[in-house]
Design a protein that fits this description.
heterodimer, A: 369 residues, alpha+beta, Gyrase A, domain 2, Elongation Factor Tu (Ef-tu), domain 3, six-stranded mixed beta sheet, six-stranded antiparallel beta barrel, 34% strand, B: 128 residues, OB fold (Dihydrolipoamide Acetyltransferase, E2P), six-stranded antiparallel beta sheet, three-stranded antiparallel beta sheet, globular
Chain lengths: 369, 128
């Protein structure tokens, strides 16, 4: 069961317990994996209405200074210098081998200030790397402990904010953020998320956690959702999870991100030489299984009887009502949508087909509101 | 007569057959059950053998046979609707039936009162 004594607690720990949450260790934190209704109900509620997720465990950094944009442009795989104030950009921290130290989102706050949101398990390493590699005239601060993050996700999430006094036309557009207040609490509100649905991520002072949580939970159709639903929601969208689809053994090209990297351009960043000249050994693919039985991380994938790769994430998909998986498949194996695969361990064998992601095609993330 | 195991299975004797399932506690701990597989009818099992697998969204768990016998029926409704195990773990969500059983083996298992006490004791020891 693991040692739960040294786990960190979010400011909402008691709220989670009161809501009947099952708590599990995740990246050093004691986190709600589900509440009393269960993962599938929370998943469906997020797809049809709106849920809130306590995402306090993720890290928030602030990078400031006249050289900040140029310095981040060297450290991160996607361009930062051309990013406009008011936008968010999904980005990656790579090492010299072109493999992934973390995936993160960069918010450009103004010409010389950036807010960076990183994974919980990689926060310490990331911070050390930024501190080491940023020039001395650029300041770095890890604001994670004082910054709360709540994700409001689902097709009715904009209605919740409108109910709290926002005008529809003032809500941020997809991958944009605004500085605002919710019932007097100052926050950064971005139209981003990890569910594939219309949604917002809210960053605000940690000591206001309970006030904000209670306020949001009181709104029409809002229910809490845990890390279990967060994982099934992201996997139905084919979104990567650090430690699974992204890791130190996989280059960003192998993880499937070449199309957004603009490697043909002149911009150099840590890892760019390797990525430009790389011969990927594997690539990430989606698999829809024929039944409800899920393949788990590490399950070998066979194509025409030959071992072709391994599952990186797998779960039962509540929307498709069958199992889905992501897997790394060796580059020598030809695959396309519909290629039959077998996933087998010494205990079981399940069949399925290669499928393009997202597995769930009706996500509302980009809809016009 | 209904008895319980430390692995959270129940077994109930109905006529010459033993009906087997997982306890309400186990179903709640697993969370949403998404898949149930049991060995086919005719499989001979002895006490402690794996007779099937139950998967939830987050994990897969084995089901162990509380007694020896031959699988005489499986609950085919669980193939399409495994959530029955969550909704009715100790009745409609039965997993399989065994015949060729020996009632003496039941003496090793816990009564309802003993199982409830076992759950309480494991809950308090895991909090330390």
């Amino acid at each position: 069961m693991g040692d739960t004594e040294n786990l960190k607690l979010t400011p909402l720990y008691n709220r989670h317990l009161a809501l009947g949450a099952k708590m599990v260790p995740f990246a050093g934190w004691n986190m709600p994996v589900q509440y009393s209704e269960g993962i599938i109900a929370e998943h469906r509620h997020t797809r049809t209405h709106v849920s809130i997720f306590d995402i306090f465990h993720m890290g928030e950094f602030r990078v400031k200074g006249s050289g900040a944009a140029a310095a981040l442009d060297k450290l991160l795989a996607r361009a930062v210098a051309d990013q406009k104030t008011g936008t968010c950009r999904y980005n990656f921290l790579l090492n010299e081998k072109g493999t992934v130290i973390d995936d993160l989102i960069v918010y450009r706050m103004d010409e010389n200030e950036f807010f960076i949101v990183v994974n919980a398990g990689t926060r310490g390493n990331d911070a050390a790397r930024f501190r080491k590699l940023l020039p001395s005239d650029v300041s770095f601060a890890d604001e994670s402990d004082s910054t709360a993050k709540l994700d409001l996700q689902g097709p009715e999430s904009a209605d919740v904010l409108i109910g709290l006094g926002f005008k529809k036309e003032n809500l941020p557009l997809y991958y944009k953020w605004i500085k605002t207040q919710i019932n007097g609490i100052p926050c950064i509100l971005s139209r981003t998320g990890y569910t594939g649905e219309l949604g917002f991520e809210i960053y605000f002072p940690a000591d206001k956690s309970e006030t904000m949580w209670d306020l949001l939970l009181k709104q029409k159709n809002v229910k809490p959702a845990g890390l279990g639903a967060r994982d099934t929601l992201r996997l139905e969208m084919g979104y990567p999870l650090y430690g699974h689809e992204l890791n130190l053994e996989t280059t960003l090209v192998e993880a499937g991100f070449a199309p957004i990297l603009k490697l043909g351009e002149k911009r150099d960043f840590i890892g760019s030489d390797v990525l430009r000249n790389s011969h990927p050994a594997k690539r990430l693919a989606g698999i829809v299984l024929d039944g409800r039985r899920a393949a788990r991380e590490g399950t070998p994938v066979f194509i025409s009887g030959k071992e072709a790769g391994k599952v990186s994430s797998g779960t039962f998909s509540p929307s498709l009502e069958k199992a889905v998986a992501m897997a790394f498949i060796g580059s020598v194996f030809k695959i396309e949508d519909g290629t039959p695969v077998e996933l087998a361990t010494d205990r079981f064998k399940i069949t399925g087909r290669i499928a393009s992601v997202p597995f769930y095609k009706n996500g509302t993330a980009r809809i016009k509101i | 007569m209904k008895k319980y195991t430390k692995e959270h299975e129940w077994v109930e004797i109905k006529g010459r057959e033993a009906v087997i399932g997982i306890t309400a506690y186990a179903a709640k701990e697993l969370g949403d059950i998404t898949f149930v597989e049991v060995h086919p009818e005719g499989t001979d099992v002895i006490v402690g053998d794996v007779i099937g697998t139950i998967e939830s969204v987050k994990a897969a768990s084995d089901v162990y046979s509380p007694i020896s016998g031959t699988i005489s029926a499986t609950n085919t409704e669980l193939e399409e609707e495994p959530a029955i195990v969550n909704n009715s773990p100790e009745e409609k969500g039965w997993v399989c039936k065994l015949d060729n059983i020996d009632l003496v083996e039941l003496e090793e298992l816990m009564t309802k009162e003993q199982y409830d006490k076992f759950l309480k004791e494991s809950a308090s020891s895991s909090k330390k």
